[in-house]
Specification:
The protein is mainly α and 131 residues long. It has helices spanning 14-38, 45-64, 70-94, 100-130.
Length: 131
């Protein structure tokens, strides 16, 4: 009787971790947004809301920059996220409408608007491959 051994890497590849990390980031950011919208006094509110404010627009920008290598895409997405946050804060201050809840809602809406064309493109591409 001959047994065969398969070699498995002790490290998990980056492609296998990507969905897990994306799901975790979505959960953490979503929880931060919910804490802000609910007006919670939790000590986790500030760091989780900050994570949401940086990660939500960065995810949309990174999806739109699919032609860049991963490091450049992440750096550009993070820089774009900071710029969008600053523009929203400046607009809210200039119109005398500043509120933390309003900022979270505005960034969620902008992030969704940035991500929407990429999601539509992927859906169109997937339908084209199915038929």
């Amino acid at each position: 009787m001959h047994t065969t051994q398969t070699r498995t890497s002790s490290r998990t590849s980056g492609r296998e971790l990507t969905p897990l990390l994306a799901g975790s980031a979505t959960a953490v950011g979503g929880f931060g947004a919910l804490l802000a919208l609910a007006g919670s006094d939790s000590p986790l509110r500030a760091p989780l809301v900050l994570f949401f404010l940086l990660a939500a627009p960065a995810a949309g920008i990174a999806a739109a920059l699919r032609g860049l290598d991963p490091f450049a895409r992440g750096l550009a997405a993070l820089a774009g996220s900071v710029v969008l946050n600053m523009l929203v804060a400046q607009a809210m201050l200039a119109t005398h409408r500043w509120s933390p809840r309003g900022g979270v809602v505005a960034m969620a809406a902008l992030s969704a608007l940035i991500l929407l064309p990429e999601l539509l493109r992927r859906r169109r591409t997937a339908k084209g491959q199915d038929g």
